[in-house]
């Protein structure tokens, strides 16, 4: 059994065939989906997906969309977390160094969401691009007690270990399938069995050989195969380890009784 620990099934990219996408994923062995929120306007669609038994949801404010976030969105997020106990994490939040013009605003927004995660007793789902070391330093300062997921990890073995020591796991997806990703592939090989989850970031982050195509959760099975090859383990072991970690982190599937009451 596989869990896609990060996929945006609420995005309009799936409006025409969402049920078929889910069916294809299940045919490939994917039984669970973790869907994070990105902007306030999309939270209702995320929460609607969360009514499904096979979908687990998170709510957050993504740094990529920082120009779309309003002055009262943090208060709205606080209220939404209080009103929706099925939400299992704060995210997708984070830092993206490609957008230097919003650097200070990104950190302010991120810090505020870490405080909300602390207040509500939730883990974080963190988007981090070209800022692993700075993010790890900030997480040490903020001391987030519930850990979380460093989504779309693309760093070094040392950076992965730093996040794990802070109580986080790393998300492994399409980036590791590209031949040039040697540093990331070394990190994947060195991870402890409970230090990662598998994800697709659908509809984004296409795997090697699928560039230009819409990504889908079914491809987490291919990610699993490549992770197994890099780690010298069989596919069943990787699937079981990653799914157990996702269940522990997000209270999905058989661990759903651990969701907030």
From TrEMBL:
Q: Which Pfam families match?
A: TatD_DNase
Q: Which UniProt keywords are listed?
A: Hydrolase, Metal-binding
Protein family (similarity comment): Belongs to the metallo-dependent hydrolases superfamily. TatD-type hydrolase family.
Q: Where does a divalent metal cation 1 bind?
A: 6, 8, 92, 201
Query: Which positions does UniProt annotate for a divalent metal cation 2 binding?
Result: 127, 151
Q: Could you tell me which InterPro entries the record lists for this protein? A: DNase_TatD-rel_CS, Metal_Hydrolase, TatD-like
What's an example of a GO molecular-function annotation for this chain? metal ion binding
Q: Which GO terms describe its cellular component?
A: cytosol
Spell out the protein name for this chain.
Hydrolase TatD
